Input
Amino acid sequence: LPNWMTGYGFAFLTDTNLKWTRQVQEQIRSSIPWTLGYDANDSLSRTLAERITLNAHDAGIILRPAAGTNADVKIVRFSVASADPWVALNSLAAAFGITMPAKSDDSAEDLYSAEKELLAHERVIPLFHLPAESAISPRMRDSNFDADGNWRVEDVWINRVDK
Output
């Protein structure tokens, strides 16, 4: 989940350890290339697949970018379903067919444990959170957005242009 939602994003390690990755790769001794699927209609996904392929090569992993859904691993976009972290986490888990434990309380520790458990399934590797951006006319007034990026259109009005 995005750090703005949970406040503990720093707790998940993001450092790369190429030496360790190469050691694991040598133990596997697999030279079979994996395919990395992406949506053919999504230029950002294609660019990400190409970048990931290069980074994997540095670690000794052979990946081949492939448009379509028939792949060993896939790049998938997922929108945050709610500003409520429990709702967002359960929505993410459901999208990937992972059953999450019942929420015991609203503590940050329980949320962190639940997110850590979701990642332990090794079906999801979060790459980054990209906030939604919008551009509007200067004539538009009271355009408010919720923390999760949803636009509250009920508050919007357009200023009349005088000539």
Remarks:
- The first helix runs from residue 3 to 6.
- Strands lie at 34-38, 63-67, 73-74, 140-141, 144-145, 151-152, 157-158.
- Residues 4 and 119 are 19 Å apart (CA to CA).
- The two ends are 48 Å apart (CA to CA).
